From TrEMBL:
Residues 379-428 are annotated as: Disordered. The lineage of its organism: Archaea, Methanobacteriati, Methanobacteriota, Stenosarchaea group, Halobacteria. PROSITE patterns: RCK_N. It holds the Pfam family Ion_trans_2. One of its GO terms (biological process) is monoatomic ion transmembrane transport. Gene3D superfamilies: 1.10.287.70, NAD(P)-binding Rossmann-like Domain. It comes from Halobellus litoreus. This is NAD-binding protein.
Length: 428
């Protein structure tokens, strides 16, 4: 179950969309100069060579749009899902029309990605909601480009080489992006004044849009520095282990889990969250027992929940909340005091272990000269047999068998000694 969700889940959809986007850009750039003017056959139909160049160029643009769409999928936007579903067949067709060996991986990956993303339609259920500043910036950009295009076309006699609407739009876009090729220039005072106005309006609109676009990225950097997660990062969590709270027992647990699964740690201490984030752990700064915090931590799609702090009461409240939000999730807990094991199980934990009691038992067994505890510890911590529960269980059975054989031998010796004593008494 865990493997299938890793390969076909929401995160796989985002990764595949990014991969198709990058591959479409690379393939398009590689094929732009291929087959200049040379016709070719495709499924028995002669296709003009210009089609190959056009599809290579449009394929590059489609790849960039897919990269933007992947960002939308990361935020679980339904609009991004629709856009991606439409673009995948287009990239596949573009790959076919480019008709080169470089296009084969693009075609195959587009078909695979279409199937995976299509299966995850329910995962992308968030409606696109733009803030007032985003709507205003986009409107300003569109209005600035419309002003530059219409004005340049209306004043085309005042400009060199402006003859069509395409020329006018080209002038407006090049001016606003501050590229300035210099091939279209004003030839009169009126044209120069208009060019100055276009420069001010379009450059300002571009600056506003770029600021709005890069703001989430800047917030993400600050959030990481402070040990916090953005909503976009939380949205792609799936099939992870949710560690609720942090204590002395949590540190070795994180070291074990981080090499085998995706882990999200929820702690309410910002300084501790920052330190954990600096060490590479994914951290959410919030109250581990709070319902909203666990919802943000995606407890509904987590494969397991771990509660192992030094406070059994807080762990019990955390477990109760997690069990209420996801009745099917596996919950494991560590009890500081042995008498709290049953209480944590009643709270909803599936497995409760008392490390202090277990360690005390191992030490007591070793103090009495028994070797079973040491053998079990070695196998659990990664001995020659693999360091897993199965090998440890085999060690326990082996030790139990040896103990049983030894006890049986002692009983037999004792019985034999008793029989000899009775024989001596009878002889006497």
């Amino acid at each position: 179950m865990a493997l299938s969700r890793d390969w076909v889940g929401a995160r796989a959809s985002v990764v595949l969309t990014l991969a198709v986007g990058v591959l479409s850009v690379v393939t398009g750039i590689a094929n732009i100069g291929v087959g200049a003017g040379a016709d070719f056959q495709l499924f028995g139909v002669v296709v003009p060579g210009v089609v190959q160049q056009v599809t290579a160029f449009t394929g590059t643009l489609t790849g960039f749009v897919l990269l933007v769409s992947a960002f939308g999928l990361q935020r679980r936007l339904r609009a991004a899902w629709y856009l991606t579903i439409v673009l995948f067949p287009i990239t596949a067709v573009q790959g076919v029309l480019q008709s080169s060996q470089l296009s084969l991986p693009l075609i195959a990956l587009s078909v695979l990605a279409l199937a995976i993303v299509g299966l995850n339609v329910r995962a992308f259920d968030r409606e696109l909601s733009l803030s007032t500043s985003q709507i205003a910036s986009l409107a300003a950009l569109g209005g600035a480009q419309a002003y530059g295009t219409a004005g340049a076309f209306a004043l085309r006699d005042e400009f060199k080489d402006v003859n069509t609407l395409l020329d006018a739009f080209y002038f407006s876009l090049v001016t606003g992006s501050t590229v300035g090729y210099g091939d279209i220039t004003p030839s009169s005072a009126v044209g120069k004044l208009f060019a100055l106005s276009v420069l001010l309006v379009t450059v300002s609109s571009f600056a506003v849009v770029l600021g709005v676009v890069f703001t989430p990225l800047i917030e993400a950097r600050f959030s990481k520095a402070l040990g916090r997660m953005t909503e976009e990062q939380l949205d792609v969590l799936d099939n992870h282990v949710l560690v609720l709270g942090f204590g002395d027992l949590t540190e070795p647990i994180l070291e074990e889990l981080s090499t085998q699964a995706d882990v999200l740690v929820v702690v309410d201490d910002e300084e501790r969250a920052r330190r954990l984030s600096e060490r590479g752990y994914t951290v959410l700064t919030d109250d581990p027992s709070d319902e909203e915090a666990q919802r943000r931590g995606k407890v509904d799609v987590a494969q397991a929940v771990v509660a192992a702090t030094n406070n059994d009461a807080e762990d019990a409240l955390t477990i109760l909340t997690a069990r209420q939000l996801n009745p099917e999730v596996t919950i494991v807990a560590a009890a500081t005091q042995r008498e709290n094991i049953n209480k944590l199980k009643r709270a909803g934990a599936d497995t409760v272990i008392s490390p202090a009691t277990l360690g005390a038992h191992f030490l007591a067994e070793s103090a009495l000269g028994k070797e079973g505890a040491e053998t079990l510890e070695e196998r659990l911590l990664g001995g020659d047999d693999g360091g897993d529960i199965e090998s440890a269980a085999a060690a326990v059975e082996e030790v139990d068998s040896d103990d049983a054989a030894e006890q049986s031998s002692d009983d037999a010796a004792e019985q034999s000694s008793g029989d000899t004593s009775r024989d001596d008494d009878s002889t006497a």
